[in-house]
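User: Sequence in, structure out. Go.
Assistant: Echoing your sequence, followed by the structure tokens.
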Amino acid sequence: MSIIEIDNLVKRYKGLTAVDHLSLSVPAGAIYGFVGPNGAGKTSTMRILTTLMEATSGDARIAGYSVTKNPRDVRRAIGYMPDFFGVYNDMTVWEYLDFFSACYDIDANERAVINRDLLELVDLPHKRDAMVDSLSRGMKQRLALARTLAHDPQVLILDEPASGLDPRARVEIRELLVELARMGKTIFFSTHILADVAEICSDIGIVEAGKLVTSGGVADMQRALVPTRQYQLRLLEADFAAAQTTVGQQTHVAAVQRATDDQGELTSTLLIDFTGDDAAASALLIALVQAGLPILEFSETAHDMEDLFMRATRGIVN
């Protein structure tokens, strides 16, 4: 079941098309990474989803509510964290949370309990009486995330939540997002930090120049963008030309070549493009051992998110 549905969304600014007939859906409970370079249309899309900006055409629905026809219902269903913190530095951490809780008409006594629980969730109870402007950037991001949860929304929409954070703070934010997903929240976040996507996302959508390039589960996307698997076969000293011929004759082997090092020198590893499944890969290894090849290592090459992104995009910017 999809909890976010975007249907043929368009946003134009004078002569610039920031969002170009974008359609996608996000399953309930997903951690969805909305990935693309700066200027790809991520922030414009998110501002439309959060009812902060009107689309030129098209529509989007969150939890069944149209962002154009039912904006108040959408706002109740979402928690939004923009890519900047805001201008509330003259408040304490507690006052900051209490202010946003009050904006949702939560009773004062209930707010006290909610605020305490939220500070525990984001690991900031020791900063309860600290001034907001005294917090580190990572702490401010965690506080902003707590703010989005005050009214217990179904969906969190987060614009570059890890941007500008040091490595430790980025890990803390990632762990917090995973915990929120375990609590039943759907998380839709934009980023250009591909490592964050690889670590935590169940689904991703890649956008470029306002267009959706591809979208879906991470494993499905890997299969679509990299239709052949690649294996590394490292050998002891051998007749590599003969070994290459032997490997090339095996079932499901699409291509085989000898790998080179950083200096362009040939190595003792053969790279095998393979079209079979796991059972076929096991059969290949057995066949190569029976053929007498002096095998030291047989392993599958992992395609990271950076590789998938480069395969999906063309380097176009608005």
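User: And one key feature?
Assistant: The chain has eleven helices and 14 strands.
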